[in-house]
Design goal:
Length: 287
């Protein structure tokens, strides 16, 4: 069969027994599975956070990898007039993602479409499985796939999927308005403004990056952190092509990262104005 690679992304944390219980269940079912922890510090029930984290790294995994998303996993079956949310398997880029259809798939995909999508129906009639669905519903499906069973053999094809709210950068005349979508452990602020949009709107014009602490504007893009002196602020496009605002050699646990020193918060607006000048005068004209 070759490599059996399974990743875990969850909002379960590591202070309790939940993650260990899931891993034990996996290894009890198949001792040959290799488990990779992506993150267990997802904000509880925040599918957009989980989607961002997996989207940032899943392409580094080989074809055939199975990803379990243990975030808000309890299915909703005709509750309060809702059309429900059900455990599903999505195939994309020759990998499989198993999650409750609670908005995760829609946020992960953005404007893309899945290669295939299936609903795991055979678990919904067993109330006992609802006690710990990450372990009792998602893990067995993952094990079957890793052992060569096609989802068509134990699932039904699904066409639609739920979409959760996901902020996108908007464009106005000579202006991009985006938001901070993630603050990493260093305190670096990652936005939803990508390099392609930055280039397309700006066409090499000078610009100013403005955020809530407008006195700390930035008017150049760095290629690396060390292009500026330690302790200085910078903006760069990270390996996933997203605009990131950071403090070189800064970290929240040390002398302070961008989150701590610049007062960033998730969801905060970040603006890029393109102008023939791209100077402090331009910044003052914005306000």
């Amino acid at each position: 069969m070759g490599l059996k690679l399974l990743t875990l992304t969850s909002d379960l944390g590591l202070n309790d027994h939940y993650v260990a219980s899931i891993k034990g269940s996996i290894l009890k079912s198949d001792p040959e599975v290799q488990i990779v922890d992506i993150s267990h510090d997802i904000v509880p029930f925040d599918t957009s956070h989980g989607a961002f984290v997996l989207r940032s790294c899943y392409k580094d995994f080989p074809a055939g990898t199975v990803h379990i998303i243990a975030i808000d996993t309890e299915p909703i079956v005709n509750f309060g007039g809702s059309d429900g949310s059900f455990p599903c398997i999505m195939e994309i880029d020759k990998q499989f993602i198993i999650s409750n259809d609670n908005g995760f798939f829609g946020t992960f995909l953005g404007e893309r479409k899945p290669d295939n999508l299936w609903r795991i129906d055979d678990v919904l009639s067993n109330p006992k499985l609802f006690k710990f669905p990450s372990k009792s519903m998602l893990v067995p499906a993952a094990i079957q796939i890793l052992n060569g069973k096609k989802p068509d053999m134990f699932c039904t094809k699904q066409v639609g999927f739920k979409r959760a709210f996901s902020s996108i950068a908007v464009v106005e005349k000579n202006l991009i308005i985006g938001n901070i979508i993630h603050l990493d452990s260093y305190g670096n602020a990652i936005t939803n403004i990508d390099f392609e949009l930055f280039e397309r709107v700006g066409t090499n014009h000078p610009f100013t990056i403005v955020f809530s602490r407008k006195e700390y504007y930035i008017d150049r893009i760095s290629s690396t952190y060390n292009e500026v002196a330690p302790g200085e602020r910078l903006a760069l496009f990270n390996e996933n092509g997203l605009l990131e605002i950071a403090i070189n050699r800064g970290a929240n646990q040390g002398n302070g990262g961008a989150e701590k020193l610049l007062g960033f918060k998730k969801g905060e607006q970040v603006r890029i104005e393109y102008t023939p000048r791209g100077s402090k005068d331009t910044l003052e004209e914005l306000f």
